[in-house]
Design brief:
heterodimer; A: alpha/beta; 5-stranded mixed β-sheet; 6 strands; B: Nucleotidyltransferase, domain 5; 5 helices; 7 strands; 32% helix
Chain lengths: 208, 160
């Protein structure tokens, strides 16, 4: 019998298999960056004398234990929250030094004087679901963002971006420091026009 | 002249591709090792609520995570189904949050200690009571920057 040498296994397709795996891992692994709603908690010390705030400058939002929304003491659907908040913040009902020259609201004397005074007060129950709470927070932030976008576009039309986009660009680590330095005053100017004054009361306990 | 003929006669040898798989495998292993899937194993249900007015949470070294939610199914017999807080790899009570924050803060570099953000990764079905308790604890240790980590999506996804 003739001696036969074992045939060599063709390894040519090995590269293809490995590439396939490589591409699979490249596609499936997403380097996750988390995103969410940023908030700042109030410091722990109690204020000695809390400033007196006019009732008309407060926009109360209450979420009860059944996840129902009470806006200015009226039962409201969450889809109406954003327009109501915008209307309240943009009202500009103040006169003389309290007037607001950039507000486009109805200037109702019963609603907020100007955006710098307007405070949104959010109160929730201990039994409120986190999902609903986040939805409410989201809508309130959206109301601020809507107004800030509007003012940003009006004041700086040459930027060709909204406030939210500019803010995103500003916080992006890839943006050059010069660009950041340029954007900072623009952003803060709009932030001063519509400061985010969102106060959260301590949650009420449900009596069982 | 036969010398030259001999040289011209042989065909150009094909480039060996035998090492190609090795190169590709090297790349493959690099990607498999380099991509970190998750820092700590989740022991709680963590279906984050959706929001669309979000800001990115860059710079992982400045963030500490607090998870909360119902214990996942394999822990329910031991820990029950009441929502709980998870710090690092174990369940914790509300009172331990402050100590955790201080320990995390101490483990970070000096210049980062004042710019830390606490990311709250809380399951959507948790009640606000637990979250308020966490927030009170955070206020006690002056960890005031928080981030409610969410999925990206409209708020309508939160309402069944």
């Amino acid at each position: 019998m003739a001696k036969r040498s074992a045939p060599e296994v063709n390894a040519g397709s090995m590269a293809d298999i490995a590439f396939l795996l490589l591409i699979f891992f490249l596609v499936t692994t997403t380097i996750e960056t988390d995103s969410g709603i940023n908030r700042k908690l109030p410091p722990n010390e109690e204020l000695e004398d809390p400033p007196i705030i006019k009732q008309k400058n407060i926009f109360t939002v209450v979420v009860n234990k059944n996840n129902q929304l009470l806006v200015e003491e009226e039962l409201t659907d969450i889809s109406d929250l954003r327009p109501l908040a915008v209307e309240f913040l943009d009202n500009g009902g103040g006169i003389d030094e309290e007037s607001c020259n950039y507000c486009q609201g109805s200037r109702d004397p019963k609603s907020s004087d100007n955006p710098e005074k307007a405070i949104i007060s959010l109160k929730n129950d201990r039994e409120t679901s986190y999902k609903v709470y986040i939805s409410v927070q989201n809508e309130l932030v959206a109301a601020y963002n809507e107004l800030r976008d509007r003012e940003f576009l009006r004041l700086f039309p040459n930027e060709y971006m909204s406030f939210v986009e500019a803010n995103k660009k500003y916080s992006d680590p890839r943006t050059s420091p010069e660009e950041k330095a340029r954007l900072r005053p623009l952003l803060s100017e709009v932030k001063i026009m519509f400061p985010q004054k969102l106060s959260e009361a301590e949650p009420s306990k449900t009596k069982s | 002249m036969s010398k030259f003929k001999k040289k011209k006669g042989g065909e150009l040898p094909a480039i060996s591709t035998a090492s190609l798989p090795d190169i590709v495998f090297m790349l493959l292993f690099f990607f498999m090792v380099a991509t970190v899937m998750r820092d700590s194993t989740l022991m709680v249900k963590n279906q984050l609520p959706a929001a669309d007015q979000v800001q990115k949470l860059d710079k992982k070294d400045r963030v500490m995570y607090i998870y909360a939610g119902e214990p996942s199914s394999r822990y329910t017999d031991k820990y029950g189904s009441q929502p709980r807080i998870q710090l690092n790899d174990k369940f914790a009570s509300v009172g331990e949050v402050a100590a955790f924050v201080l320990a995390e803060r101490a483990s970070k570099r000096q210049e980062l200690q004042n710019v830390l953000t606490t990311a709250l990764k809380v399951d959507g079905d948790t009640k606000m009571g637990l979250i308020s308790d966490i927030k009170q604890e955070l206020r006690k240790v002056n960890a005031l920057k928080i981030n409610y980590t969410t999925r990206i999506g409209g708020y309508t996804q939160n309402i069944d």
